[in-house]
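QUALITY CONTROL LOG
STEP: pairwise intake check
CHECKER ROLE: data steward
CRITERIA: each record must contain a sequence immediately followed by its C-alpha cells, with no blank fields

ENTRY 1 OF 2
RESULT FIELD BELOW
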Amino acid sequence: MPVTHITNGTIENISSDRGNTLSLVTYMGRLGNRREEQTVRLVVGPRTIVLNARGEPIPASALREGMNINASFSSEMTRSIPPQANAYLIRIMGRQRPDNITIGRILDINRNNRSFTTMTDRDFSTVIRFNTSDNTNYFDRFGRPTQFSGLRPGMRVRVRHANFVTASLPPQTTAFEVRVL
C-alpha cells in the first residue's frame, strides 16, 4: 500500500470518532510543480504508532492542537474536504507557533461553497477568503455556539485559521473557528 510522508506538519484540530482520534494536520506538500500548504485529517487508530520527541511510544490521547509532527499515512484518501487518511506513524517534533487570528468585517458569503470573505480596516490588501468545513466552530457575539447560516455580510468576526494562505486573489485559507464580535 502506498504511503505518504509529511515533515513539519501542524495539528490544527483534534476530535474523536468511533474510538479513533481525528487529527486535522496542515503541511507543505507538492501540488504539481509547486509546493503548497495542504490539509489532511489523519485517522489515528489502535494500530497507529505515536512517538514523543525522544522516539518513545505514547498514547494517541497525548496529541494536542498546535503540535508539530512528522507523519506517515496511507496515500489512499477520501475525496472529502479535507481528505482523510489512516495514519501509520506520528512523531511529535515540538509545539507550533501561536494561533493565526484575523479580525475583520464579512464582505460576502458563498453559501454553496461554505466560504466567506473578510477585510480589515477598509484596507483592500487585507481581503481574505475563509473556507469552512463541517469541523469549523461558530460562535455568536455572546459566545454561544451557532452555525454558518448565522453569518451575514457586515458582521465583524474573529477568525482562528490555518497558518497558510494560497497565492490566489483573494488569498484563501481554512477557518477553524469563527466568532462574531
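ENTRY 2 OF 2
RESULT FIELD BELOW
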Amino acid sequence: MIAQRILAVLAAICLVSSAALATLGPPDLPLDQMLLQSGGGVLQTLEQWTYQHLAAWVWNDIEVPLLARPAWLIPAALGILFAGLAVTLTPPRGTPRHRRRG
C-alpha cells in the first residue's frame, strides 16, 4: 500500500517535470545540451564516474544514446514506468483490506 503510493507520487513528479521541460524549453533540446547549459561539468563527472565504476561500453552504448534524446523523454519514460508499477501494486476491488487496530 505504501509502495503503491510512493510510486504514484514518483510518477506524478516525473510526468509533471517532463511536461515542464517540453513546454518551457525547446521540445527537441537534447539532454546533453540541457546539461551543458546548466553548467557545473555534469557530463564530464558522469563520464568519469561511469568509466571508474562501470564498463566503458555502458557509456558508449547506453548513456550516449540517452543523452542524444530530447530532455523531456527520460522523465516521461520514468513516469510511465512508475505509474505502471503503481497500478500493478494496486489490490483488486473487493479484496478485504487489513485494518490496524489501535
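INTAKE CHECK: passed for both entries
DESCRIPTIVE NOTE, ENTRY 2: The mean pLDDT is 88.
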